[in-house]
Amino acid sequence: MSPVSLSEIIAALGGDLHGAPETAIARIGPLASADATTLAFLSNPRYQSQLATTAAACVIVAPAFAEAATQRGAAAGGSAAAIVTPDPYLYFARLTQWWAARVRPQPVARIHPSAVIDPSATLGEGVDIGPLAVIEAGARIGDGARIGPHCVIERNAAVGPGTRLAARVTLGYDCRIGARGIVHGGVVIGADGFGFAPNKGAWEKIEQLGAVVIGDDVEIGANTCIDRGALDDTVIEDGVKLDNQIQIGHNVRIGKHTAMAGCSAIAGSTTIGAHCTIGGAAMIIGHLTLADHVHISMGTAITRSISKPGQYSGVFPFDDNANWEKNAATLRQLHSLRERLRALEKKTNSD
Amino acid sequence: MSPVSLSEIIAALGGDLHGAPETAIARIGPLASADATTLAFLSNPRYQSQLATTAAACVIVAPAFAEAATQRGAAAGGSAAAIVTPDPYLYFARLTQWWAARVRPQPVARIHPSAVIDPSATLGEGVDIGPLAVIEAGARIGDGARIGPHCVIERNAAVGPGTRLAARVTLGYDCRIGARGIVHGGVVIGADGFGFAPNKGAWEKIEQLGAVVIGDDVEIGANTCIDRGALDDTVIEDGVKLDNQIQIGHNVRIGKHTAMAGCSAIAGSTTIGAHCTIGGAAMIIGHLTLADHVHISMGTAITRSISKPGQYSGVFPFDDNANWEKNAATLRQLHSLRERLRALEKKTNSD
Amino acid sequence: MSPVSLSEIIAALGGDLHGAPETAIARIGPLASADATTLAFLSNPRYQSQLATTAAACVIVAPAFAEAATQRGAAAGGSAAAIVTPDPYLYFARLTQWWAARVRPQPVARIHPSAVIDPSATLGEGVDIGPLAVIEAGARIGDGARIGPHCVIERNAAVGPGTRLAARVTLGYDCRIGARGIVHGGVVIGADGFGFAPNKGAWEKIEQLGAVVIGDDVEIGANTCIDRGALDDTVIEDGVKLDNQIQIGHNVRIGKHTAMAGCSAIAGSTTIGAHCTIGGAAMIIGHLTLADHVHISMGTAITRSISKPGQYSGVFPFDDNANWEKNAATLRQLHSLRERLRALEKKTNSD
């Protein structure tokens, strides 16, 4: 792929350019490993010191760092270009989008002859149906949607316009996802929720009669599962971002723009607010309600509803094994330690 | 789908009907969001107060609530029907089964022409082999079994009668599942267990020579993995219910009617008793034995065998981040706190 | 499968045979469940007592146990054969490999006609491309590689010689895996890393422009995910062994011969050293560095870098539910307990 000039980037994405517009950019990269054809960015002030030493052709910076970014090359006589913009991280995000559109193959409109498509399915304009995809009766694929190889769109399921499914995604019957979504490989949307009634020591299945309804601009990571509702639907609102290997139980509702990191899980019938973040491997039990703007740290088990925005945590602090063993063993006597402390306080105070 | 009358439901499922048999039911739903065509149920006495306010056409209740259920509409002049039955939750489970059979397409007997089936495979009567399924040499598919699109039934594997595999399930070579099972999308049964011998800093593979043997009436959630045994087989007994994203290591044995919630995991060679429940994201290390009727709370790490029935727990209680930080930091000194307390006790007692 | 004689095994794998070379071996099995045609092994001295009672035809032992192994049958007049070797566990590993090669079907060189292969893909000598596999433009499959049914090898991806992909594996565009690898079912290599810039309450996608680079002799368990890098690549070095259901974030680097157990996870941009072991369900946050020879216990959350080899742990010790509740509740007051203890110490000392 041939390099681009900084002027082309500025023309596409804006920003104030300090330095030579014809500077050639061959890659986007981190400050630390940048070379003379790299466009880098400084977002976290923690990495500010790297400005002085980076070999990057150009650095995207906030106004406060404009001087440092342009003067860094002065001593060495380098070009020291900079793009100044109020939010370098957002600029960087858009740069990656522009770059990806440039270097990746353009989407094609095609229906691969090996796909198995029921005649009653509806395909929008300009869709791309990959090899060996299966599209069942009554399914609807929106304009410009891309269905990867080996995807299964079950009966009466719906994929919104512009949504992209990677290879090997299942969208269960009656489930739907909105516009501009991205679903990565191995995702299962619409498997049965886990519901059983006890019956003389065995389990009687509760058929799951709801579906999954996913809004617009939702991204779902590889091998994540979202179960269909038992009676009503499981709902993922607009703009939600789910990482890989996540488990969403039946009848969960996740509010707009909430983001969940890998391996986290939400049990059935819990409602998560909007603008929340859930750390990796965090787990939330069923039938809870979390308010908007709640942030759960990685690995934390949430066992009660949370009505107040804020950060919540609960992981055992790791240590070298010998220390951990001593402290963990003592932890099992913690309640009795408190009782002994109380007794001592009483005695001392009465002395 | 047209509504049904209460009399049809009673005819199919039994129960004592209080109220008009011709009452039309269009959906099954929760008490709280019920409307005048909804059939709801009251199982947990905690929700008893909803009886007074629900708009449901009919409520399934235990005898103790029959009066409250039928009189709820009296003031408003409503019909206030009720189905009285000793176990409303079990009745509800069976109702969902009956309802699903009514509203879902009937299973068909077909072998999709795109499936790749080895001539030496054996297909029972009335099987449904979905598009693009792969059935290898020597595999056996029982009567009435349903193999979803993109499933892979490897050589000499066996699927019992009436068992249903959703799309994209792998049943590994020599593995077998019994009758009336349900396997959801993305499940991998029979991948190699994780076994290696150390060899001069590297790892030498221990080939996994066992298989996976799964009993009757087992349900397995989406993207769950069950590894084949190293020498003997991994065994899942009758009636076990596994949720999504579960990991079962090699040579594990799970006793009858045990249920495991999502994201839980069992390491190799551990034996779990019958009638146990394992909470979500709980993890059990290898080479342990858990007795029958052991219940593990969500998120708990089980590191020793358990010989006594009961409930076992071990998660760090979450808190707002500031409190958690203070307590977690102190936890690392817990052993020394105990020593200080002892010293103080000694000193105080000797004073 | 017909039995083999001990002499055949010794001819193939070496070791000092004590006992009759013509002894017939029909299976490899554990000491405890061995019968008169079983070849067993003793590696862990903990199981030494089983030597006296096992019915095994032959036991693989270290020199220190040679006498016990051969004399065990003396009283009963049994044959009591033994294979004496310095590292019985390694011998056992190689025996399973030899046994598997003997009892499993030989790999075939074939390109199944149902596979969808782009004409610009490069296939090596003797490859096996399974039914319904998809191989996209520019992909390269090395000599003797085996691509299972329903695998997707995306554009410009590369599979090294002798590497085996089970059914339903995705190798994303531009990603590559080296020689002699084993990848189990449902694995997704090269899904997008989880990267977003906040933008007025919503999330702006950071396109992931890197790939995944995997070395030689790497094994990857079922349904594990390895994300592509954001700018640079995600790197898995030679000899790494990953169990099932693992999540590897973007730009992670895992050093040679490190092994990770099931359900563990590493967040983005963390570097793990060589020869580490990561326990099941352990989780490591992003942007950390772990030294070589670091061992993380199961279920432990690693929140800071580790520069010193050793074993690190941090799980809440489980207990019966009543005890856990008492201790967990007290844990939330731990910091204030320390303050009270301090106050008491001060008072006592000043008395």
From TrEMBL, chains A, B, C:
Keywords: Acyltransferase, Lipid A biosynthesis, Lipid biosynthesis, Lipid metabolism, Repeat, Transferase
A Pfam family that the UniProt record links to this protein: LpxD
Recorded metabolic or biological pathway in which this protein acts: Bacterial outer membrane biogenesis; LPS lipid A biosynthesis
PROSITE patterns cross-referenced by the UniProt entry: HEXAPEP_TRANSFERASES (PS00101)
Active site: 250
Alphabetized InterPro entries for the sequence: Hexapep (IPR001451), Hexapep_transf_CS (IPR018357), LpxD (IPR007691), Trimer_LpxA-like_sf (IPR011004), UDP_GlcNAc_AcTrfase_non-rep (IPR020573)
Reaction(s) catalysed (UniProt annotation): a UDP-3-O-[(3R)-3-hydroxyacyl]-alpha-D-glucosamine + a (3R)-hydroxyacyl-[ACP] = a UDP-2-N,3-O-bis[(3R)-3-hydroxyacyl]-alpha-D-glucosamine + holo-[ACP] + H(+)
Enzyme class: transferase
Entry's EC annotation: 2.3.1.191
SUPFAM superfamilies: Trimeric LpxA-like enzymes (SSF51161)
A Gene Ontology molecular function term of the record: UDP-3-O-[(3R)-3-hydroxyacyl]-glucosamine N-acyltransferase activity
Keyword ATP-binding: no
Every UDP-3-O-[3-hydroxymyristoyl] glucosamine N-acyltransferase non-repeat region domain range: 24-98
NCBIfam families: lipid_A_lpxD (TIGR01853), PRK00892.1 (NF002060)
Complex and partners: Homotrimer.
Family: Belongs to the transferase hexapeptide repeat family. LpxD subfamily.
Function, in words: Catalyzes the N-acylation of UDP-3-O-acylglucosamine using 3-hydroxyacyl-ACP as the acyl donor. Is involved in the biosynthesis of lipid A, a phosphorylated glycolipid that anchors the lipopolysaccharide to the outer membrane of the cell.
Annotated protein name in UniProt: UDP-3-O-acylglucosamine N-acyltransferase
Organism of this sequence: Roseateles violae
Recorded name of the encoding gene: lpxD
